[in-house]
Amino acid sequence: MTNPGVLELIRFDTDFYKTFFDNVHVLRCRHSDIGGSMLSPVLEERFEFQLRCLGNFAIQNNSNSRIELQSYFQKHALYPPFVQKLPPADLDLIVVIPAFNEPELVHAVQSILSCQRNDICIEIIVVLNYPDSQPNLQSFHEFQRKELLGLNVDNANEILDLPVFSLPVKDAGVGLARKIGMDEACYRFESINKNGIILCFDADCSCHPDYLKLVVDGFKNMPNQNALTIGFKHRLQDLTESNLEAIIQYELHLRTYIGWQKFYKYPMAFQTLGSCMAVRSKAYQQQGGMNKRKAGEDFYFLHKYSVLSQLAELRPLLVYPSSRISDRVPFGTGKAVRDIINSKSQHMSYNPKGIASYCDFYNLLCDSWPLIEGGRSWKSLTNSIALTSYLMQVNFEEALIENIKNSTTAKVFASRMGRFLNPFRLMKFLHAASETEFPEIPVLDSAKQLLIANHGKPLKQPSSLIELLENMQV
Predict the structure, then answer these.
(1) Structural contact between residues 320 and 273, judged by C-beta atoms closer than 8 angstroms
(2) Environment class of residue 331 by beta-carbon count within 10 Å: exposed (0-12), middle (13-18) or buried (19+)?
(3) What is the mean pLDDT of residues 65-88?
(4) What are the strands, taking DSSP E only, across 344-442?
């Protein structure tokens, strides 16, 4: 490496950097009259590694030249790479696990390490984190960090050594922790110029022995897909009766909600669990990376790809999330289980008729593109007063006119309208309509109705909640 002058590390001009680091990440070369002195070997290695990670850049040769970073990292990364050693050239997949005060973490990592490999080269990034309002958790996480590194003795240093993160309480949460880990994975893949797989897992999960192999095969078999949602089933062992009933009802809710969307041929009908998703490194960067939401980060992340027809489903039930009660996030499995137990009543789920009205409208709209373009009113495509009212509230007509103007084919029109009639708006509509035209129904009723609808005939009634769930999982 030729003499680049004096290397100065300066931080991004963001509040986040001001909170966490004094010196990070944006590299500036400032040429000065230093008589051709060289960087120290340590700085030279660090400088070269960061350049390889950051990718596209341009050098302007003037008295105050600067390396301009033209990449995802310049716009979205919050930290520089933490692991300076280059990864193996044949690295295929990096597992990212956020971990906050999680006693089952080591078991989750061991579950990954026990998977069948078939020459798959992996690394594991665990983002140990806690909000800065709870400094008492630092020692626990530091202990876990040592535990994890102890697993490397027999596993070729596949578990990377990252610091424990004390995150500002305003941003602390699973979204930010996932982002830190997934960004680090991108640095790793960019440093070897590889479009590898970033696989998200959770610290309270376990997995099937073929998990890694089937994920890698899934991407190989679907080269046009950039993200995967992966089959799951909650662990039902060693639960109290109330906890067991609650988690079954909650998983039935997840499955009926997506199941009805599939039944009505909604193209963006996918489960969105953060512990059950994977993405190609390049596609992750192209779509702006992970968000910092405290909950629901998985829903918003995966649907970046569903609306682009870049999300696919890996159907085998490969991930086994925990079924326990939790109050660590504002919504999700743990909170839902707690709420169901506390309510002492059957869990309610979205009305299938409401889902049908939204999905049927989308499909009719796409099929009617020539007529809509010719002036037919979109209101003629639905009999639902609630849906018509909702669409008027979200300025649907303006979006429709704009999309007609910019669509040259029915396929383009359908794609553009899908981005407007997206899964987020579906959920918002169902929430609103549950107060009027489409009240929620008991989840057990919805599940039984869906099984009948899918089979086209009445079925034998399941003898237990577990049997009903197993039928839905199949």
Answers:
(1) no
(2) exposed
(3) 78
(4) 348-349, 441-442
SS3 sequence of 354-373: HHHHHHHHHHHHHHCHHHHH
**Cβ count near 164 (within 10 Å):** 18
Residue 69 β-bridge partners: 57
Does 341 or 96 have the greater pLDDT score? 96
Nearest Cα neighbor of 190 from 19, 334, 71 is 71
pLDDT tens, position by position, 324-348 = 777 666 667 878 888 888 888 889 9
* Mean pLDDT, range 59-85, rounded to an integer: 67
Sign of the four-CA dihedral 205, 206, 208, 212: positive
Cβ atoms of residues 116 and 209 within 8 Å? yes
Q: Residues 6 or more apart from 243 whose CB is under 8 A from it?
A: 323, 324, 325, 337, 341
Gap between the Cα atoms of 122 and 111, Å rounded: 14
Round the CA-based radius of gyration of the chain to a whole number and report it: 25
Q: What average pLDDT score do residues 211-217 get?
A: 98
**Burial of 33 from C-beta contacts in 10 A (0-12 / 13-18 / 19+):** exposed
User: 105-115, pLDDT tens digit by residue?
Assistant: 999 999 999 99
Alpha-carbon distance 165 to 100, whole Å? Answer: 10
Please report which confidence band the pLDDT of residue 461 belongs to, taking 50, 70 and 90 as the band edges: confident
Maximum C-alpha span of the chain: 87
